[in-house]
Amino acid sequence: MKIVIAPDSFKGSIYAPDAAKAMAEGARRVVPQAEIKLVPVADGGDGTLETLVETSGGRIETDEVTGPLGEKIQSQWGAMGDGVTSVIEMARTSGLALVPTDKRDPLNATTYGLGEIISKALDSGFRRFILGIGGSATNDAGAGMAQALGIRLLDERGIDIPVGGAALATLAHIDMDHLDPRTQGAQFDVACDVNNPLTGPEGASAVYGPQKGATPEIVEQLDSALEHFASITKRDLGSEIREVPGSGAAGGLGGGIMAFLNGRLRPGIDIVIDTIDLKRHLVDADLIITGEGSMDFQTVYNKAPIGVAKLAQERGIPVIGISGSLGERFTDVHEHGIAAVTAITNAPMTLEEASERAAELIASATEESMRLMKTGNTVFGAR
Questions:
Q1: Residue 228 is part of a domain; what is its CATH number?
Q2: CA 107 – CA 163 distance, rounded (Å)
Q3: Beta-carbon contacts of residue 66 (< 8 Å; ≥ 6 apart)
């Protein structure tokens, strides 16, 4: 019997590689003779860096960069074991979690630090980039990133505009002549799981601006600035990004990476599945165990367990899920290839306790799931 264990991180509790080890421990208590393959996954969000670095035998680097409000911060990025691919989570350079609630400022917050991290990775010889862009504090369409990489964003006087989303309203010309030439041969894969356009009622400013501190008046100002940015981008770069699904992700960063770096927007789980070559690991598998911190109706929208289940369905491999908690309409996952789901909590407990005991609880829940399957085989006569 071959079991493939492919969970995502349990956010705030345990990273995917450790969750996979706990699931393997639980499975071995019931089927000690089974061949068990650990293939932790991620969807481009929190924990993607650690998962891809550990599974590839890579390393985590730390560098000083410019934070979202212009302060110097220490930020981590991942160097995968292939020596070619780097993993960068923009939340670690320009993320909302880096800004105290009372200091959130989408008018001036910048992605400059993201560009600095990309430059550091280029210095180290990396030419493929997996960029996770969730959790941003910014609304600058990647302008700061572009400036850090040498692109000049000029006003009508030929002077570089300041950083921040508001300054895009003064943009008159984009000068690409000094873009770091090493980016020309690089590949930028952007983990993007939202379909928001750059502007309008479903755009970056209107949908995500309020959580970054934008009042209705500021939302209108930022949306107008992004409209202007899109017009200049189309004229100077020949890139029409305004209506592209995902261009509004991370305050327009999705669109900016497309325009400035010819990046590709893809579901995060698809990028990870290709990077770790999950298909190869599924050959001859009899069962797949996946999981994440919480399963509910949102899980079916490009979350990691569903990405794993889609591959399994194509190959006729049954999938079960282990989850930190089960939320509203969690049974929706049954229609997407996950046959059954078990929550890890086995008694009333606080979130803090569940997080502290995550490995133990995941192992126990996996063991119980395997015992139920074994009993089912006996009762229903399955082989």
A1: 3.90.1510.10
A2: 9
A3: 72, 73, 93, 110, 112, 113, 116, 144, 148
Domain count, the chain: 2
Q: In this predicted structure, what is the pLDDT of residue 382? A: 53
Q: Per-residue pLDDT tens for 58-83? A: 999 999 999 999 999 999 999 999 99
Per-residue confidence (pLDDT) for residue 11, from 0 to 100: 83
Residue the block writes with tokens 């590949």: 187
Q: Give the structural domain span for 159.
A: 48-266
**pLDDT beneath 50, residues of the chain:** none
How does pLDDT run across 232-256, given as a tens digit for each residue? 999 999 999 999 999 999 999 999 9
Rounded to whole angstroms, the Cα distance separating 94 from 176 reads 23
What pLDDT is stored for residue 288 in this prediction? 98
Cα gap 66→53, rounded to integer Å: 23
pLDDT of residue 351: 87
pLDDT, position 176: 97
Phi, psi at 301, each rounded to 5°:
-95, 80
Residues 84 and 218 in one domain: yes
59: number of Cβ within 10 Å? 11
Residue with tokens 């598998």: 285
Tell me the two tokens of residue 377. Answer: 């085989």
Q: Are residues 173 and 304 in the same domain?
A: no
- Give tens-digit pLDDT for 97-135: 999 999 999 999 999 999 999 999 999 999 999 999 989
d(CA 88, CA 118): 8
Nearest to 132 by CA among 120, 114, 116, 157: 114
Evaluate whether 291 touches 305 at the Cβ level (below 8 Å): yes
Yes or no: say if 248 and 207 are a contact pair by the CB < 8 Å rule: yes
* Among 43, 9, 31, 49, residue whose Cα is nearest residue 278: 43
Helices (H), the chain: 16-28, 48-56, 91-94, 112-123, 143-148, 204-208, 216-237, 249-261, 268-276, 278-281, 304-315, 351-356, 358-380
Q: Could you tell me the end-to-end alpha-carbon distance of the chain, in angstroms, rounded to an integer?
A: 11
